[in-house]
Amino acid sequence: MNDQLLIECKFAVSDAGEIEGKAWEFASADRIGDMIEPKAFENAPLPIPMLFGHDHNDPVGSWTEATIKEGGLHLKGKLLVDDLPRAREVRALVKSGAVRGLSVGFITRKAAPRKGGRTIHSLELLEASLVTIPMHPAARVTSAKSAIQALAIADAINRAAAHFKG
After folding, report:
1. Which of 48, 52, 57, 99 is deepest in the core (most CB within 10 A)?
2. Using an 8 Å Cβ cutoff, are 74 and 20 in contact?
3. Is residue 117 within 8 Å of residue 135, measured between CB atoms?
4. Tally of CB atoms within 10 A around 25
5. Where does the record place the Prohead serine protease domain (predicted)?
6. Which of 24, 13, 43 is nearest to 136 (CA)?
7. Both ends of the chain: CA-CA distance in Å?
């Protein structure tokens, strides 16, 4: 079985295409109730293909670092902006805030059911995609600073407006 879990991520991208983000938050389940243990990502082979929208025919770069820190799986890589027009398009989408999510594609090797979902103990990580609508609410691109800062300001304004309305 090939499970693809969409995870909203915090990430950012530089003009050179360098990108990083949190691909999985360990403390909470995704939108379908699945949780993944940190050790499940320990043997992730690098580099990991970077796809757009889980389309195996749309590679846009590669993830060269995968670290488990701050309660999640963090990825760092590079969009191939010097070589692929599509990678430049994806960089523009990330920088604008239109694409903010990360999603991991994997094969489940070992899982156990739990109330509301399952706990995945072992998996084979196949790819990590940039996506528009992620499954996990804590997975985001963290390094497209201008877009991330603008989104944070807009979020603060929306929270303030809601506070004054209510």
Report:
1. 99
2. yes
3. no
4. 23
5. 15-149
6. 24
7. 47
Residue ranges of domains in the chain:
2-165
To which residue do tokens 């499940």 refer?
40
Q: Would you say 21 and 142 are in contact if contact means Cβ atoms under 8 Å apart?
A: yes
83 alpha-carbon distance from chain centroid: 23
Check: pTM over 0.85? Answer yes or no. Answer: no
Along the 166 residues of the chain, how does pLDDT read in single tens digits?
Answer: 455 554 445 566 788 999 999 999 999 999 999 999 999 999 899 999 999 999 999 999 999 999 999 899 999 999 999 999 999 999 999 999 899 899 999 999 999 999 999 999 999 999 999 998 777 877 778 765 444 454 555 565 666 666 666 6
- For residue 33, count other CB atoms closer than 10 A to its CB: 13
